[in-house]
Sequence to fold (118 residues):
Amino acid sequence: MSGVQEQFEIKFRLPDGTDIGPRRFPPASTVATLKETIIAQWPKDKEKGPRTVNDLKLINAGKILENNKTLSECKSPICDFSGMTTMHVIVRAPTSSKQSDKRAEKKAKDFRCGCAIM
Fold:
């Protein structure tokens, strides 16, 4: 064994079609680590960039990746990370605390009325 750990080459496709990367990541890298890289490399000229890893979703082979999973755990027969892999980045729209409060109030009111939406 040469002791060299295999690395995955990944680029991140942003919502506007531009890319970050490609960059190489070890198989033990978590999805949260990938998201931190995206935040650090986010183009400064783009408005409404993500602030935290929870502002981002990564999609690979049609599957939303969980923050606590490693790249090794995300491998599947559909996506084996051979060659370069493109992951799609979804940015959650920021919500103001007023919007969040209104939603919470509406849910509580709907629940009290017995007309909770399922």
Notes: The beta strands are 8-13, 19-25, 56-60, 63-64, 84-91. The radius of gyration is 18 Å. Residues 8-91 form a domain with the Ubiquitin-like (UB roll) fold (CATH 3.10.20.90).
